[in-house]
TrEMBL record:
Cofactor binding remark: Probably binds two magnesium or manganese ions per subunit.
Protein name (database record): Exodeoxyribonuclease III
PANTHER family for this protein: AP ENDONUCLEASE, DNA-(APURINIC OR APYRIMIDINIC SITE) ENDONUCLEASE
Site (Interaction with DNA substrate): 245
Metal-binding in keyword set: yes
Binding site for Mg(2+): 245
Gene3D superfamilies recorded: Endonuclease/exonuclease/phosphatase
Protein family: Belongs to the DNA repair enzymes AP/ExoA family.
GO molecular function annotation: DNA-(apurinic or apyrimidinic site) endonuclease activity; double-stranded DNA 3'-5' DNA exonuclease activity; metal ion binding; phosphoric diester hydrolase activity
Residues marked Important for catalytic activity (site): 219
Organism: Cellvibrio mixtus
Length: 256
C-alpha cells in the first residue's frame, strides 16, 4: 500500500507546476494533500480530479487559507472532518480522515505560528489537544496513519542549520519534546525513520528553494506502533518541485 503526502502551498500553483500529472503516475493508494488554500467548491474542478480516485476535501470557509484533501482508490466507510477540539482551531480546514475496517488515514495541517492568526500559543494548544486525542485513540482497536505538515522538526539531523534554528518556531525545545513524547512515550512511530536514517533528508525549505541550504524535515507520516514494522520503503521525492515542500512517499506491507 503506497501513501503519498504533500503540503502544496496552494493547489492552483502546485497544479500548474505539474503535480497532478506526476501523481497520476505514482500508483499510490492514498494521496494526502495539505495547505490547499482553496474552497471545496474550487477543488471540484476537473483539473483537481484524479482518474480512479475518490476525492475528499475539507476547507476553512475562508478563501486562500488552509484546506486538506485525501484521494483514495477505495471508498471509505466513514469520513471525519476535524478532530473536535473545543478551541475550534482544527475546524479551520486542518484535518480530514478516511476510515476503513481497521485502518484510519488522516491528512493534517498543523498551525505554523508564523502569522497573526497562528500564534505560538495557538500552536501549543493545538498540539496539547492533539496529544490528548492520541492518548485516547491508542486504546481503540484501530490502526492510524497521520500524514501531514506538522510544522516542526524533531532532531538536529532533521534541520540542516539546527544550531541557528533552535530559537525559531518549528524547532523550539518544547516542540521537539512534544515529538519525543509522541514517539517514545505515547508509542507512535515516525514511519520515514523506520527505514531511512539519512541526515540530509529534508522535506521543506522555508525560502522555497530546495537548493538554498536551509532544509527541514517537517512532513511526517506518523503511524500506530503496530504499523511500524510494516514500513517497506520511504523516500522524499526531490526531482520536481511543486511547492516549498516535497512529497513524502511511503510503502506499507498492508492490504485493505
Amino acid at each position: 500500500m503506497r501513501v503519498i503526502s504533500l503540503s502544496v502551498d496552494g493547489i492552483f500553483q502546485a497544479a500548474q507546476r505539474g503535480l497532478f500529472t506526476w501523481l497520476a503516475g505514482q500508483d499510490a493508494d492514498f494521496i494526502c494533500l495539505q495547505d490547499l488554500r482553496a474552497l471545496e467548491r474550487e477543488m471540484e474542478k476537473p483539473e483537481f480530479q484524479l482518474k480512479g480516485y475518490n476525492a475528499y476535501f475539507f476547507d476553512s470557509g475562508t478563501k486562500h487559507y488552509n484546506g486538506v484533501a485525501i484521494y483514495s482508490r477505495l471508498q471509505p466507510k466513514a469520513l471525519i472532518y476535524g478532530l473536535g477540539f473545543a478551541s475550534g482551531v482544527d475546524m479551520e480546514g486542518r484535518y480530514l480522515q478516511v476510515d476503513f475496517e481497521q485502518l484510519s488515514i488522516g491528512s493534517l495541517l498543523a498551525p505554523s505560528a508564523s502569522s497573526e492568526l497562528e500564534s505560538q500559543e495557538v500552536k501549543i494548544k493545538f498540539f496539547d489537544d492533539f496529544q490528548a486525542h492520541l492518548d485516547k485513540i491508542t486504546r481503540k482497536r484501530r490502526e492510524y496513519i497521520f500524514c501531514g505538515n506538522w510544522q516542526m522538526a524533531h532532531t538536529p539531523k532533521d534541520v540542516s542549520n539546527s544550531a541557528e534554528n533552535q530559537h525559531n518556531s518549528g524547532f523550539l525545545p518544547h516542540e521537539r519534546q512534544w515529538l519525543s513524547q509522541l514517539f517514545n512515550q505515547i508509542g507512535y512511530v515516525d514511519a520515514f525513520r523506520k527505514v531511512n536514517k539519512d541526515s540530509d533528508e529534508y522535506s521543506w525549505w522555508p525560502k522555497g528553494l530546495k537548493d538554498d541550504g536551509d532544509g527541514w524535515r517537517t512532513d511526517f507520516q506518523v503511524v500506530s506502533n503496530s504499523l511500524g514494522g510494516k514500513v517497506e520503503y520511504a523516500a522524499i521525492y526531490k526531482t520536481q518541485q511543486f511547492s516549498s515542500h516535497m512529497p513524502v512517499i511511503i510503502d506499507y506491507d498492508i492490504e485493505l
